[in-house]
Design brief:
This protein is an alpha/beta fold and 365 residues long. The chain has 13 helices and eleven strands. Bound molecules: pyridoxal-5'-phosphate. The site of pyridoxal-5'-phosphate (PLP) has 14 residues, from α3.
Length: 365
Amino acid sequence: MTRRLRPRPADSPLLDLAGNDYLGLARHPEVVAAARGAAARWGAGSTGSRLVTGTTELHAELEAELAAFCGFEAALVLASGYAANLAALTALGEAGTLIVSDAGNHASLIDGCRLARAEVAVVPHADPEAFRKELSAHPGPALAVTDAVFSVDGDIAPLRDLSAVCRAAGAALVVDDAHGLGVLGEGGRGTPAAAGLAGQPDVVATVTLSKSLGSQGGAVLGPARVIRHLVNAARTLIFDTGLAPAAAGGALGALRLLRREPERPARVRAVATGLHGRLAAAGLDVTRPDAAVISVRAPAPGEASAWAERCREEGLAVGCFRPPSVPDGISRLRLTARADLTEADLDTAAGTVARTAPPGARHPA
Ligand SMILES: Cc1ncc(COP(=O)(O)O)c(C=O)c1O
């Protein structure tokens, strides 16, 4: 089956459980006003590479506030979370280095490993012992890389154990917190903060500004010396135009709103739990959400896409993951929670998913 693009109208009637706007901020008036204000003041584009003309005072402000919020010494904003992952892995994974990568990692981390000149070892999902074995067998510099919240099933990586394994081996830990920022940790400070790892000298995090912060862009967070190294070595920073001012302004507006409304992350987690409870009660094979992502197992790839299509016909947008996008060969629907969903929305969403389920999607009664 070939993929196709479906332009979304501005006033789509679909109930959206497919996007990543976890805190419901992408269209929040304050965030939109911040984006608009940034475009009016700084222009539609950043005009150049971050190293030439593409670093405005707004970028510097966003970096300072993001680093402080997440508990890291410094931050570097890039054009996307994808570019942030490539930046971190290619700049830190030099020749002679070993990168140990979780088998469930996001495609952008996989691509970062491919582009880095380092040797790469892929280890079984969420298995600190497998990381330890690889790291202890490598004599030179090394780093371990993992999603904090895995993007398909929404489970959390064993970050404390991974950090202990890395520290014992003298390796750095790179954590992609795309799905944790704004959802986990006190007030949404993210998964490294929740695990007590933010600001540690051997921990680097990457985030996206496009999910909980409702905007666009990405960032690497870490010790100031690491960020300085990235400025000099990360090709996705050096050879890419700086993030558009509207995106930087929108993300900064969202971050300030999140600081003022720290109850939003708890609400999105409660929505995820409520959705899980309803789907499990309907007999579906559904993952228990550690953050905002829930996946519902489908019997086969064709049935998964037909199921997602039936949901859409009934007014509900859900994601659909099938092999080869998922290396474990399991097809599933992927549902995302949003802080602004009501209990009635959850009833509607779960009712639609259950009603349209193919035979074989339910546990035997
Ligand atoms: C785990 C993870 N990392 C990185 C990214 C890339 O972020 P961006 O969309 O900002 O490029 C995504 C999703 O888009 C993601 O799910």
